[in-house]
């Protein structure tokens, strides 16, 4: 049996909380009472984030209101802002359960780990790249998309001290957040997967987005390495830089499709390495190159990772496909921005299909600011080889109005009132359809499961 990641007494000492605490093992740390299992430490966060952070999912209730449920589910201790009456397990009381509790424990976790830590961010594809990095033998990586002000410290707190490598994904909801997350993580390698027009509404310009992404370097030590796409400037960082992409030290030499898989040959420094990706797609090649470049920068063996890449599949909502009633449905609905929508269309174009059509169901790309109409209408540049497009949302009307003749399947203004059966009725056996848009367009409304059910009923 593996050793616990913490004991209750160790957590109390790490947070500077005086008193007598037991050496009860802790195997898992969570802020969600619904995820508590036997052996867990429950961190009772406020429903309204502290520390100046912003959440799109702030709760009207505080975590400590669910202390009894956490205890019943098997929590062995809790971090709370005050003693909770009726709770029998140890309570570690701190002033602020986010900053003094969760972040304090994350700092202690990072301080005891001496191995390489890769921190990564990017406008699109960072979670997929993180999954590639997680394939390195005995690596520990952020679960799901734990990349915000509570997800990053939870990742650090739960990371195995005996891992070969820690991989920590970082995102943002406001200016300055990536720098704070990086300074908490203290990566030895910082990777920027790409810089694309995402969060323009909040940051205002592509240059501001670049600065925000490159600020991940603020957590690096002086001998750390910043890994960047070819051509992306980062004059703010004066230390060592590694690069991937065309003409960089890590770049693709060639690829050959074989069914769903792509056989890829890449140059890693002066060494040529061949590997497979399933499924293969241009953006997946770029994400793989980013991961290989980061592994190289961490002084680990890129070839060891390369042979594992073919086992890295697609996460839910990021390209998972299924055949229903003769229609291939690709669920890429988790999120959408100009770069990721273009990548989804490019992947659809590359599909070898029979007598059916390549169909794109596209929802609004949000947070693009004043340039949003132009970004939506500009998607016409990526529609060669796409046979039909169904548009959803007021912003996608800008694309629908300029679609080439015969490509428009329809437009619906409100995703909340869109009936999946309406789209299913437009599809026929042999079609390959990709569903893509910002999270609020399809993912939150569970549109794809509804579409699958409608296609099953129709079959």
TrEMBL record:
Span of domain Mur ligase central: 121-294
GO molecular function annotations of the record: acid-amino acid ligase activity; ATP binding
Keyword set, alphabetical order: ATP-binding, Ligase, Nucleotide-binding
Domain Mur ligase C-terminal: 324-438
Gene3D superfamilies attached to this UniProt entry: Mur ligase, C-terminal domain, Mur-like, catalytic domain, MurE/MurF, N-terminal domain
Keyword Protein biosynthesis: no
UniProt protein name: UDP-N-acetylmuramoyl-tripeptide--D-alanyl-D-alanine ligase
